[in-house]
């Protein structure tokens, strides 16, 4: 299925119902979704473009990275709870959904540069 199609309502892994498109990038698209088996808990589902994973080596690398990401626990890293492959061969990641504004929006809201103290606080969290 094309990543450019309207996928709202599509069910992934017989569990995650895709909602609004949150963003797109070179490797795929991220959707807000609900986990239908966990009382409609909101999650984020990243659907990866099949073209980015043409070789079995790339698919294995994705699986290894997803396993590592699922084990990471840090308040500054989004938690990955599941990964898999759809019947159509698309790879996906299920992550916690964060209802927050992006750094880009924060920067656009400011009338000028962010205060140094705030920049240092953000940089510390990233590092």
Radius of gyration: 17 Å
Low-confidence stretches: none
Query: How many alpha or pi helices?
Result: 3
Q: What is the H/E order?
A: EEEEHEEHH
Summarize it.
By secondary structure, this protein is α+β, with helices and mostly antiparallel strands. It has three helices and six strands; from the N terminus they run E-E-E-E-H-E-E-H-H.
Structural write-up:
With 127 residues, the chain is of the alpha+beta class. 27% of the residues lie in helices and 31% in strands. It has three helices and six strands; from the N terminus they run E-E-E-E-H-E-E-H-H. Strand 5 and strand 6 (91-96) form a beta hairpin. The termini are far apart.
List the helices and strands and how they pair.
Elements: E1 11-12, E2 16-24, E3 28-35, E4 41-48, H1 56-71, E5 80-85, E6 91-96, H2 103-109, H3 116-126
Antiparallel strand pairs: 1-2, 2-3, 3-4, 4-6, 5-6
């Amino acid at each position: 299925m094309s990543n450019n199609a309207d996928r709202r309502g599509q069910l992934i892994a017989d569990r995650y119902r895709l909602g609004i498109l949150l963003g797109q990038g070179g490797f795929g698209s991220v959707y807000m979704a609900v986990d239908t088996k966990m009382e409609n808990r909101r999650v984020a589902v990243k659907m990866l473009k099949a073209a980015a994973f043409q070789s079995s080596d790339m698919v294995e690398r994705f699986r290894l990275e997803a396993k590592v990401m699922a084990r990471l626990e840090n308040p500054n890293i989004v938690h990955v709870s599941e990964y898999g492959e759809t019947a159509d061969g698309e790879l996906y990641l299920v992550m916690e959904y964060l209802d927050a504004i992006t750094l880009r929006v924060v920067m656009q809201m400011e009338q000028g540069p962010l205060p140094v103290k705030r920049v240092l606080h953000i940089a510390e969290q990233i590092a």
